[in-house]
Design goal:
It contains 12 helices and no strands. By secondary structure, the protein is mainly alpha-helical. The two termini are 30 Å apart. The C terminus is likely disordered.
């Protein structure tokens, strides 16, 4: 298996697995304990690893959301708890989700080893959200650690893709509409506020996808054939347990 084949096979699985804990009942419950509803906990949790920054910083890292919605959710959320507290609580929820669902997964040690090799090899330069979340400590237990690593690698590709969109000159809002035209409202865009899409936009999106693969490729290249097999086998086993993505992955 080539590294390009590994990237193309692994990254969609990581995309669909890494967000699974976001809206899990245990995550929702923990947010409520902290005084945050599910959406405030999402913004404070996922963005809190950036620190107590202004909402513009979070909006730039999230990319696809209406900045006005980010500002409202972020500022009202950080009035309840400190962002770093929210970020660490979210990572703890990620680990707990792994413990709740992945404890019986075979060869978790091998999967964690492969995931961590990729994570350590990834260059965080210009990838703010990935750099922030990858600096967070990992738990020691294998089920929790595996879930945290998958969530981190999801942020790796997400951050790389935003960088690629900027590089090819495609507005993230337009890219989001091209990929998921029915979900604009979920990301805070008013009804009817949709971009006019051209063939050139579609070509730029294709170019950004290819560039994203090139950005993350060096991290995955550290795995030999055996490591690639372990990674893909483990991710597929996770998917068999957690199921196909059934909620919008935000």
């Amino acid at each position: 298996m080539t590294t390009d084949e590994l990237v193309q096979a692994a990254c969609p699985l990581i995309r669909d697995l890494g967000w699974k804990f976001y809206f899990a009942p245990t995550t929702v419950e923990r947010g409520q304990e902290l005084g945050l509803d599910v959406f405030h906990f999402y913004f404070l949790g996922r963005g809190g690893v950036l620190g107590d920054v202004e909402s513009q910083v979070v909006a730039s890292a999230f990319g696809y959301f209406n900045p006005a919605v980010v500002a409202d959710m972020w500022d009202s959320g950080r009035a309840v708890i400190a962002p770093r507290e929210g970020g660490r609580a979210y990572m703890a929820c990620c680990a707990q989700f792994g413990r709740d669902h992945l404890s019986q997964l075979p060869d978790l040690d091998g999967l964690c080893g492969a995931l961590e090799a990729v994570q350590k090899a990834a260059d965080p330069t210009a990838l703010a959200l990935y750099a922030a979340v990858s600096a967070e400590p990992l738990v020691d237990d294998l089920p929790g650690r595996a879930m945290q690593l998958v969530a981190m690698l999801r942020e790796l590709r997400g951050s790389a893709h935003l960088l690629a969109l900027v590089a090819v000159g495609l507005e993230p809002k337009t890219a989001h509409f091209l990929n998921r035209p029915d979900d604009m409202g979920l990301f805070g865009w008013p009804a009817g506020d949709v971009p006019v899409v051209t063939d050139s936009d579609r070509e730029r999106l294709d170019a950004a996808e290819a560039m994203t693969d090139r950005i993350v490729r060096p991290a995955y290249s550290v795995l030999d054939d055996a490591g690639a097999d372990v990674l893909l086998g483990g991710l597929r086993a996770m998917m068999s347990v957690l199921g196909e993505a059934s909620l919008p992955a935000v």
